[in-house]
Amino acid sequence: MPAFEMPLDELVQRRTGTPTPDDLREFWSGTLAEARGAVAEPKAEPVETGLRLVRTWDVTFSGYGGDPIRAWYHLPADASDSAPVVVHYQGYGGGRGLAHQVPWWTMAGYACLEVDTRGQGSGHTAGDTPDPTGSGPAHPGYMTRGILDPQTYYYRRVFTDAVLAVDAVKSLPGADPGRVAVSGGSQGGAMAIAVGSLRDDLAAVLSDVPFLSDFRRAVEMATTKPYTELYQYLSVHRDHVERVFHTLAYFDGAEPGAVLGRADGRDLPAIDGVRGLQRVRRPEGDHRLPVQRPRGRRCVPPARPAALPPGTPRRDVLTAPSSGLPSRQS
Predict the structure, then answer these.
(1) pLDDT, tens digit (0-9, with 9 covering 90-100), for 283-304
(2) Residue 195 near residue 154, CB atoms below 8 Å
């Protein structure tokens, strides 16, 4: 397996050449305003899982277009009335899982909303949320659905669902609406970055090996799925290259002027993870490297205990002052 194409100190200084669309902010502000206009009150039904240390609810909230999005909400049984919350997004192809599959966030004392990804949930964990919106011709997978126009692109719906999940969790039992963080790995990491840029009320963003970043370079370098979905699509539709990359610029997690550009100008505490040796996805070592580090984000080298700052206990990664996410007891 290959190592990084570039050493870590060069990697964190790398800047993408993705152009920022002139109407980017209007695109996302209009998308979210339209979506919030179709929102209904979230529903939360208690679920019996057989677990004594965790309480679980089956949640349905309104996503893009008012479409129902499913999630599991897990709360420690001994939680106070105002527990800090982690909203967790899924990796590519995954879903919210089963009710008794409790995330380690809840075992650490946090409330956690495990959010389904529309149309996915048959790759590694089960999902239960359809995507009722169709698309034109697309390569098998999700990356090229509706890709010829930002208005119809699949990830416009997915990112909107992710933003509205934070709205929904604030009204759930035992959640502290003032202490909400977002997290995820791979696709979920990209969703966390997007939500962190499109909201101004989060405590922290925790993004591990984020996918959906620096698309043009990824298409040039990737050798396996999912980025090769783009390559295969463009190998058939060769006249669509510029239209495709124009659309992707509205969703590129490596571009600070795009989904990383916060309108309020504040720094947002965040931890990003990159991975070292792994099967070939990109020659840099991972197909999901965060090649841009915006202000206020901390790039953590390959996820091992030794990669953390010296002397940092593993259990304190999220409760350290730099994370901005208070512990459950605070």
Answers:
(1) 333 333 333 333 444 444 333 3
(2) no
- Answer whether 119's CB lies under 8 Å from 148's CB: no
Strands (E), the chain: 43-47, 54-62, 68-76, 83-89, 111-115, 175-185, 204-208, 270-273, 297-300
Q: What is the distance between the alpha carbons of residues 189 and 273, in angstroms, rounded to a whole number?
A: 9
Alpha helices in the chain (DSSP H): 8-11, 24-36, 104-107, 154-169, 187-198, 215-221, 228-236, 241-248
Determine the Cα–Cα distance for residues 233 and 248; give it in Å rounded to an integer: 14
Torsion sign across C-alpha atoms 219, 221, 224, 225 = negative
C-alpha atoms less than 13 angstroms from C-alpha of 177 in its C-beta half-sphere? 8
* Domain spans, the chain: 8-323
Instruction: Name the range with the highest mean pLDDT among 14-23, 155-164, 260-269.
Output: 155-164
> What global pTM score does this model have?
0.81
Cβ distance 172 to 113 under 8 Å? yes
pLDDT tens figures, 212-227: 988 988 888 888 889 9
Crossing angle of helices 24-36 and 154-169, in 10° steps, is 60
Q: In the block, which residue shows the tokens 């101004």?
A: 200
As a 3-state breakdown, the chain gives helix, strand, coil percent values, each rounded to 5, of 25, 20, 55
Written as six digits, the tokens of 13 are 């200084």
β-strand partners of 111: 85
For domain 8-323, the question of CATH label 3.40.50.1820 is answered with yes
Shortest CA distance to 182 belongs to which of 196, 171, 172, 170? 196
